[in-house]
Design brief:
Helices cover 85% and strands 0% of the residues. The chain is mainly α and 67 residues long.
């Protein structure tokens, strides 16, 4: 049904999404409290791509509007 390459590409996309959210939360987003950072990181671990999309539209877009 699915090839091995598709499986690994999905895993790579999930890892990149998790790494991006974790990096953004812990090093670039100074407005969040430590508790919120932990929640975002846990959510990114379990729901990586979905969390990356939600984080982008809820947090990153605020930075663009404020700047």
């Amino acid at each position: 049904m699915y090839s091995e390459a598709t499986f690994y590409a999905g895993g790579l996309l999930s890892f990149i999404s998790f790494a991006w959210v974790a990096y953004e939360v812990w090093s670039n987003n100074h407005r969040l409290t430590k508790t919120n950072k932990i929640v975002w990181t846990i959510a990114a671990f379990f729901f990586s791509v979905l969390t990356a999309i939600v984080y982008y539209f809820s947090q990153k877009r605020k930075e663009v509007v404020v700047s």
